[in-house]
Amino acid sequence: MIEWFTVIQVVVALAAGMLAIVLGLAGRKPNDLTMGATALVELLLIIQLVVAIVSPAVGNEPSGSLLEFYIYLISAVLLPIAGGFWALIERSRWSTVILGAVCLAVAVMVYRMNAIWFVQGS
C-alpha cells in the first residue's frame, strides 16, 4: 500500500458518502453525480488492488495478515458494484442513501486496510 494514496481514498470515499447521504435525505434519486462519485471510489479501489498486488513484489511487505488485508480489499471492491447495481434497479431516494452508506463503509474498510498493512504486528 501507499500511505498517501490511502489518505486520498479515505477522503474521496468520505466526501462521496456524505454527498450521497445529503442528496438522498433531500429526496434526490440516484443521478450522474452520485453514481459518478461511487464509480470514482470504485476506480480508486481497483487501483489499490493493483498496488496491493505489486507492493510485496517490490519489497513493501504488510506488517499484518495479508489474507485479512485481501479479504477487506475484495469486499470493499464488491460494495460499490453492489450499491450501484441496487441504485440502477431501484431508483428512489433511499438508493442514493445506500450509495452514501456504501462509500462510508469503503472509507472505514480502507482505513482498516491501512492499519493492517502499516500498523498491525504479525
Task: Write structural notes for this entry.
The chain starts with a helix and ends with a helix. It is elongated. The chain has four helices and no strands. By secondary structure, the chain is mostly helical.
Write the layout of secondary structure elements.
Elements: H1 3-25, H2 32-54, H3 66-89, H4 93-119
Helix pairs in contact: 1-2, 1-4, 2-3, 2-4, 3-4
N-to-C series of helices and strands: HHHH
How big a fraction of the residues is strand?
under 5%
How many domains? The number is: 1
- The low-confidence parts are none
**Which percent range fits the helix content?**
over 70%
SS elements, strand count: 0
**Averaged pLDDT, please?**
93
Apparent shape: elongated
Q: Class by helix and strand content?
A: mainly alpha
How many whole angstroms does the radius of gyration measure?
Answer: 15 Å
Q: What distance separates the N and C termini?
A: 16 Å
Q: Number of helical segments?
A: 4
Task: Please give the largest β-sheet.
Answer: none
Quickly list its features.
mainly alpha, 122 residues, 80% helix, 0% strand
Concise overview:
By secondary structure, the chain is mainly α. It has helices spanning 3-25, 32-54, 66-89, 93-119.
